[in-house]
Amino acid sequence: MPLSDVRPTPTSRQSPTLRQIETEQDAVRRMHARVDADTEHLRTQLARALQGRSADTTVLHDREARVRLLSRRLRALDAAGHALCFGRIDTTDGRVLHVGRLGLQADPEDAAGDTPLLVDWRADAARPFYAATPVHPLGLRRRRHLALDGRTVTGVTDELLDGSEPGPDDVVGDGPLLAALTARRTGRMREVVATLQAEQDEIVRSAHRGVLVVEGGPGTGKTVVALHRAAYVLAAFDGVADQGVLVLGPNSRFLDYISQVLPSLGENDVVLSTPAAVVRGALPPGTVAVSPDEEDGARPAADAALSRVAGRAALADLLADAVRARQAPDDALAGGFVVRVGGDEVRLAPDVVAGVRTRAQDAGLPHHGGRAVFLEEMAEEIVDATVADARATLERIDAESAALIGGDLDAVVAGDLRRLGLDGTPGADAADELDPDALRAELLEGPALDRAVDALWPRLDPGQVVAAALAAAAAPGALPRTTEDERALLARAASGPWTDAHLPLLDEAAELLDGPPARSYGHVVVDEAQELTPMQWRAVLRRCPSRSLTIVGDLAQAGPSAEHDRWADALGPDLWRRAQVRALTVSYRTTAEILAVARPILARVAPAQAPSVAVRRGDEPRRATALRDDLRAAVVREVGAAADLVPGGLVGVLAADDAVAGFASALTSDLGADPGTDADGVDGSGGRVRVVPVSQARGLEFDAVVVADPAGIVAARSCGERDLYVALTRATTALTVVDVD
Ligand SMILES: Nc1ncnc2c1ncn2[C@@H]1O[C@H](COP(=O)(O)OP(=O)(O)OP(=O)(O)O)[C@@H](O)[C@H]1O
């Protein structure tokens, strides 16, 4: 019986299901009463905390922390408004725990003593709800799922885990997983906290604070796991809530798809972004000219190729070299260093300046910090040289006058003064008159030294460094395994304009010049992680000083910028040595029949990867053929047929990037609505159609998918076969492939 069909009515008290629903309704009513009371109480406390005034920074700091804590709890209470409680576990010794979106303490008046009203799904006590199986029941007799509509309990289903026979209070039926998996897609991912599976839950609540890498085939729940882990980490790891969590996805279409999951788990403070947008936001505005539309549009092939070749870790060395080459290089020192101090020229020998350079570089600061050290040390050398110079001049004058007058000039002057009845101490000489502190201040504050230093250790902007590094990378032999075309690409890219492909380089250059970015996070989640190049990983790590990351991806789905087929290579040594790897093996999205269509392609793109096991069976995928001239009409027809298979559902049309516009306009004229490449179109049966370029389909899903011209998809990009693998694995229910005859 579908859960939604079960509604409690006062007249059907005999039904065991309804009796259980009423029992649970009582429990849920008590929970909501507590939520309402807590909300009221917290609001009062928050208002009071916000009013408090103080000049004491410690008090202010404490108050800020308190306001943050109260606001966080209030938001969690607010988000729990729907489906506050979704589960219950009964132990074999008769203890009962309800599991939900947040924890609620025991009722003080409750006879049940210290049993909480509700246990937060992230708490250790909730673990058996997810982990218990009939083989390992973990002390449970029964796991119960509750279905709620707002505050109303609409159904219960039980699983008996200890092998006992169902009693009068057990409502054994289909678990809610199947209902969740076959529910119509809305175009936005839902949270699955009620049905998280044991292998997923184990990853979500892993205590490993370092780098957790989760690999698995399409639809195995990698995104689900990554997002629920973000919520878990926020609650379970100290300090993370204060430092923030960043979730990275490949493009804004994907971010929109996952945007509701964390808010519906009560987490509103997580930053969702793309690797490109995060970097772009840290650079001065206008450094990279990209409109939001371009970000979502298909990326030019040249840009992807540049991302790949300029994404290699070796570029980091070339950027560092480019900066170092602008720090008083030997060839700029050949003539020494000359600066005017007052009316005089001061000259420093090349080896003196080289010594200053070494001291400045050894300070281990970014380029501009190093420049400040260089400038100060140069000022010091100039002061020393000036004092030494003045002394030498005086000594020379003394020696010359001694030769002239046949004695020590000072002694002669002292004798003359004494004869005049004056003090016999000679006046301070010129070297003593020279005030080193004043000279140093003049050098450091005036423009002359700064200008002279510019010729040796110039101020730089990231673009200058990137241009130099790319030009160096384009030289034969600079980068291993580069083709002539790639070198030409690097040479062209060196003169700008800057595009998304340059962003990781600009970010690295910005760090070399001025240090790490201002904003960093306590934990970073990277979804579709197979897309990132080594240089992009460096940009991610720059924002995650704690090195606490959850990384999920599937190398078989890698796009055009990826070069590696092992995580160890793709992630690089810094990440890999901290990584724990977990695998997900069950495909929840799609049916065994659909996976079978994709399997031969998987065997080609990732021969070492074991195919996932589908949790469901379904209809055989459809295969249609059309002449090239009829392709659009055939796709329109197949979209109609697919929509009929998933009434009210979401149909995705996936095609090579340059073919998308044609299918969108054919569907527009047929459906009388604009499916665009982004917006929804409405078909006759009330469903929706989305036309999506295959380069943007990673991570998405639809009830039905029409893959248009698979050969065209394969031919369109260097990663064409992997694109096709992605396209074939997007459907929950119905797949149609339209080949060109
Ligand atoms: N435990 C679960 N309960 C309910 N639904 C689930 C569960 N696990 C996964 N799903 C559903 O299966 C589908 C696929 O999950 P998800 O997108 O996380 O997979 P993925 O491994 O990230 O896929 P891809 O590699 O294609 O990006 C989603 O609709 C998700 O909601």
Automatic annotation (TrEMBL):
**Could you tell me the keywords of this UniProt record?**
ATP-binding, Helicase, Hydrolase, Nucleotide-binding
The superkingdom of the source organism is: Bacteria
| InterPro entries listed in its UniProt record | DNA_helicase_UvrD/REP, P-loop_NTPase, UvrD-like_ATP-bd, UvrD-like_helicase_C
**Alphabetical list of SUPFAM superfamilies matching this protein:** P-loop containing nucleoside triphosphate hydrolases (SSF52540)
Note whether Amino-acid biosynthesis occurs among the keywords. no
Per the UniProt entry, the signal peptide is none
UvrD-like helicase ATP-binding domain location: 195-591
Instruction: Indicate the transmembrane segments per the record.
Output: none
Q: Which PROSITE patterns does the record match to this protein?
A: UVRD_HELICASE_ATP_BIND
Summarize where ATP binds, as residue positions. G216, G217, P218, G219, T220, G221, K222, T223
**What's the protein here called?**
AAA family ATPase
Originating organism: Isoptericola hypogeus
